[in-house]
Each structure stands twice: as structure tokens, then as C-alpha cells.
Amino acid sequence: MIKIQDLRVGDTVVAQYDGVLKQGTVTDINHDEKQISVVTDEQEFWYDQQDLFPISLGEEQLAKLKFVRNDAIKQGAQYERGPFIIRFYVKDGEKHADLQYRDEIRELKGDLNVNTLQNHYAAMTNFHLD
Fold it and tell me: Per its UniProt entry, which superkingdom is the organism in (predicted)?
């Protein structure tokens, strides 16, 4: 489940309807009713927040978002999209990610989801990541 306050229009999520999971894009958020409109390949529909799930950020998802791996990095992994850089590494047995855009760096702990990256990217660059 994704908390409604963690979603923005344009975020990519997985929506569940009648036990079927489909990837889609958030098109509208109704905070009063706690419902989120998501368009999938089939249709646009309003979902409750308990029917939406994050997409784990992995190499496949990064490639879909047009990030390229920098193989010159020795420790951890680094992906780049223009001036935006994501570094993944393990520190004290815990997963970390650094997001860097020009002179701004954000340090995050734990696993990243696609919608979380999209929200940080938009806040740092003023452009939506899709």
C-alpha cells in the first residue's frame, strides 16, 4: 500500500482491481475521499489507497526511466540521466541511495520505489520523470 500523501499526479504505481495487478499512472488525487485516479492500459479508474502498490526501483525500471549505468564506479552502482545521478551503496549493512542534481544531494536510506524517485526528481529538477 502507498500512503496518499506520498503520491503525486504523474507517479507510476501498480493498481489492484478484482485481484488483478496493472501498472498505471496517477492522474488525479481526491484527498477528501482518499481516492486516487489511475490510468492503466485499459482504462482510468478511481482506487482506494489500499489498492495501490509501489514499484520497486531496480535496473529494469531505471532503464525504462532512461537512466544509464556508469560502469566506472567501483563500489555500489551509479545511474545517470543527464546531470541527475543516483548512487546505490551499502553502509553499515543498510541500503543507501544518494540523489544528486547539480549542487543538491539527497541521502536516502532503504529501498527506493519508482514513485519516490519520481517525486524527488521533480522536486530537484522541476521536471516530472516518466
Answer: Bacteria
Cα separation, 48 vs 59, whole angstroms: 29
Angstrom distances, CA of residue 122 to CA of 9, 34, 89, 91, 111: 11, 23, 23, 26, 19
Supply 116's cell numbers.
519516490
Query: Does 58 have pLDDT greater than 80?
Result: yes
Q: What is the pLDDT of residue 53?
A: 96
Q: Which three cell numbers stand for residue 90?
A: 551499502
**Rounded Cα distance, 26 and 108, in Å:** 24
Mean per-residue pLDDT over the chain, rounded: 93
pTM for the full predicted model: 0.90
Q: Where are the domains of the chain?
A: 4-54, 59-125
* CATH class, 4-54 region: mainly beta
